[in-house]
Design a protein that fits this description.
Elements: H1 3-6, H2 13-24, E1 27-32, E2 37-40, H3 42-48, H4 65-68, H5 73-82, E3 91-96, E4 102-114, E5 117-126, H6 127-150, E6 154-159, E7 164-167, H7 169-175, H8 179-182, H9 196-207, E8 212-219, E9 225-236, E10 242-251, H10 253-267, H11 277-294, E11 298-305, H12 308-314, H13 317-334, E12 340-345, E13 348-353, H14 362-373, E14 377-379, E15 382-384, E16 388-395, H15 402-418, E17 424-426, H16 429-451, E18 454-462, E19 469-480, E20 484-486, H17 488-498, H18 501-521, E21 529-533, H19 535-538, H20 543-553, H21 556-560, E22 561-566, H22 567-570, H23 574-586, E23 590-596, H24 603-608, E24 613-616, H25 618-621, H26 628-643, E25 647-651, H27 656-665, E26 669-671, E27 679-680, H28 681-690
Parallel strand pairs: 16-17, 19-21, 21-22, 22-23, 23-24, 24-25, 25-26
Antiparallel strand pairs: 1-2, 1-5, 3-4, 4-5, 6-7, 6-10, 8-9, 9-10, 11-13, 11-16, 12-13, 14-15, 18-19, 18-27, 19-20
Helix pairs in contact: 12-13, 13-14, 15-16, 16-17
Length: 695
């Protein structure tokens, strides 16, 4: 019986085989030994482009070029069945398409005997889809490789033993080495030894099959230290065994530096690199929480540099900035790393001693700070002397919050200044009340200039021989609507400390010169009017321009306006002061030395100062004529003034005996309550009309 007939019998093994192959979904054709088609399933028909009616009597050689070319089809078919190729015995053949094209396919032949008949079961596997898939995979691989080799991030492929097997140019550039040096070298040896633990932790995670990332230090192209962000992922084979590591590394050195600068700006003072207010508050909030949990106290020190404004005014702001930087460095030397040091603003510093061993040790720290800040600061060709006043408050004894702690230390600092500066003071409730009143006075004083609450009174200077008025001193008075009469002894020191003395002193000069012009307009006999000039005002850069403006309005100012400077002011930065005084004398101003005898000037210095008048301090005059030491001092001053060609003024004269003694001694001018208290301008005008005062 023919094979084709066998294939149509349901109970025949050939039929059963054909039915089974139909179920498999493979492209299958059944032929006899001469390659005549017995059966071909739908998958094979689609692959070969055969329709059902073409099967009868057809030979497989019509579609398989290798069979068509064989001299003996039966032998060729047998050879395909007998000689296996490939892992499953496949051989590749060329299939002719119905449209004239060709296609490559794997060709598997199984020859068997069924009864008396020999059949060949042929399986086809279309290689076009497989090839396309393989090409797509290769294209994808090439694309990925191209991306990895052209990305700005460093790419590295590491095998299971930790050796580098592939890198990209970016990785070469980062390390400053070429591929020949890097390939087949150990990955972990490329990085900074300080990051050994970090790398070990990274590798451990990757070996466990987890992705991992870490910041690792490495040596850059120029040998400098760089910082890289490494991101790695494990690679597995088909058997799920780890075969290596895929890694990307990004140079984050500049990014980290930008972050550091942003953080520096956000939390640190740019001039001193100390913590700013924001970071200070954060640290102090943490300290208060720790203190509450541990029941341990901590202290806050508020430092304010004494008369720092004078440094800026005398020299310049750049030099003042250098002084602040030096002070910041010195403070760091005293405190511990666990303490917080902040530049609170301007010339103010705040220190949080957050973990003192004993709260009593805070005073020792304050003493060290006073000493180290007071050391001379040598800058370029200048030496600056600076001191600081320190206020101390303790948490939780003096405050229940950070704001209150800072405020109370600030109050204690002001108390230290009132006590003479260059010292420390603890906060107390009594201090709280006193400083609160002082702060209110400062606020009112700032408004007083705007509201024209200040006035000048004038105290006459007389010739002791006949009582004739030969001069006057302008003295400021303050009648506050809120506080009533405020003594100059209270507000002048505060004005000097806060810097308000400069605008107040400017107002006094303008008002006195204005009053002189008014008396001139009234036809009164003018006398020189002395105006006190503070050290801060004298050295202020706007002082000379202010005087020049006054001269531009009226040249009579220099004839009748006398500038009075204290002896202590003269002895601060002597050379600079001498130069300033010569400039003032060159402008035509008369110069007098106030409170003479209370300072440390010597005869040699007096010969160098271009002054006209010495004022004998009232502390010596008040003991005349009974106290021998006072007589000796006053007589020495008067004789020295005569020898230098200087006039003398004795202030604080309150009795006839004092006036007569000083007159006999040869003092040129006398000033004091014995002749007149300081009086308003209109009252002084009436005194000028009289011309003399005879008590």
């Amino acid at each position: 019986m023919e094979v084709i007939d066998l294939a149509r019998q349901r109970n025949n093994p050939v039929y059963q085989l054909v039915a089974l192959l139909e179920e498999l979904g493979e492209a299958v054709a059944v032929t006899d030994r001469l390659a005549h088609l017995v059966h071909i399933n739908l998958s094979a028909q689609r692959m070969l482009g055969i329709v059902g009616e073409e099967i009868a009597g057809a030979s497989l050689a019509e579609w398989v070029e290798e069979l068509a070319a064989a001299p003996n089809v039966e032998l060729a078919l047998s050879e395909y069945a007998m000689i296996p190729r490939g892992p499953n015995g496949e051989r590749t053949v060329t299939l002719r398409q119905r449209n004239g094209g060709t296609n490559r396919a794997d060709f598997l032949v199984c020859r068997t005997e069924l009864g008396d008949a020999a059949i060949c079961v042929c399986l086809f596997r279309d290689l076009s889809e497989i090839n396309r898939a393989q090409e797509q995979m290769l294209d994808a691989q090439r694309l990925v490789r191209s991306i990895l080799h052209n990305t700005s991030e460093g790419y590295v492929l590491i095998d299971a033993s930790g050796m580098i097997t592939d890198i990209n140019p970016a990785f070469e550039a980062m390390c400053g080495r070429n591929a020949m040096d890097l390939l087949d070298s150990r990955f972990d040896r490329l990085f900074d030894g300080r990051d050994k633990k970090t790398i070990e932790g990274l590798v451990t995670k990757l070996e466990k099959g987890r992705t991992a990332s870490a910041e690792i230090g490495f040596q850059g192209a120029n040998g400098e230290s760089r910082l890289g962000l490494f991101k790695g992922a494990p690679l597995f084979d088909a058997r799920d065994e780890r075969v290596g590591i895929f890694g990307l590394i990004t140079d984050v050195t500049e990014a980290k530096e930008r972050e550091r600068k942003i953080e520096q700006l956000a939390y640190f003072d740019p001039l001193t690199e100390l913590a700013n207010r924001s970071l200070l508050r954060d640290k102090l909030e943490q300290a208060t929480l720790f203190s509450q949990r541990s029941q341990r106290k901590f202290a806050l020190l508020f430092l304010d540099l004494d008369r720092f404004k004078h440094v800026n005014d005398t020299y310049n702001h750049p030099l003042g900035d250098q002084v602040l930087q030096e002070v910041a460095q010195r403070i760091r030397q005293v405190v511990r790393r666990s303490d917080v040091v902040s530049r609170f603003g301007g010339d103010e510093f705040v220190i949080g001693l957050v973990e003192p061993k004993r709260i009593e040790d805070v005073a020792l720290v304050a003493e060290k700070l006073l000493e180290i800040v007071a050391r001379p600061v040598a800058l370029d060709d200048k030496t600056v002397h600076i001191t600081t006043s320190i206020g101390i408050s303790v948490f939780p004894d003096d405050a229940s919050s950070v704001d209150e702690l800072i405020r109370n230390a600030d109050l204690a600092m002001y108390q230290a200044k009132e006590e003479g500066r260059a010292r420390y003071s603890y906060f107390t409730e009594t201090l709280n009340d006193r400083v609160r009143r002082r702060r209110e006075m400062e606020r009112q004083m700032r408004q007083a200039l705007e509201n024209e609450e200040f006035v000048l009174h004038y105290q006459p200077k007389v010739d002791g021989n006949n009582g004739r008025i030969i001069g006057a001193e302008a003295l400021i008075r303050w009648q506050s609507p809120a506080m009533g009469f405020v003594s100059p002894a209270d507000f002048i020191p505060l004005a000097e400390e806060t810097g308000m003395i400069v605008p107040i002193g400017e107002w006094v000069l303008k008002q006195a010169s204005k009053q002189i012009r008014e008396w001139k307009r009234q036809g009164l006999q003018l006398v020189p009017v002395a105006v006190n000039v503070s050290g801060m005002q004298l050295h202020h850069p706007e002082f000379k321009p202010q005087l020049q403006k006054m001269l531009a309005k009226s040249d009579m100012v220099t004839e009748w306006l006398e500038l009075e400077i204290t002896e202590s002011t003269l002895m601060k930065d002597v050379e600079l002061t001498i130069a300033l005084l010569h400039e003032l004398r060159g402008m035509g101003f008369m110069l007098s030395v106030d409170d003479f005898g209370t300072g440390y000037s010597s005869f040699s210095y007096l010969t160098r100062f271009p002054i006209n008048i010495l004022k004998i301090d009232q502390s010596f005059v008040c003991d005349l004529p009974d106290k021998k030491s006072a007589i000796t001092i006053v007589s020495a001053i008067a004789n020295m003034a005569k020898s230098l060609g200087l006039k003398t003024v004795a202030e604080g004269v309150e009795t006839r005996e004092q006036a007569e003694f000083l007159t006999r001694l040869g003092c040129d001018q006398l000033q004091g309550y014995f002749y007149s208290r300081p009086v308003p301008a209109d009252d002084f005008a009436r005194l000028l009309e009289k011309g003399a005062i005879v008590p």
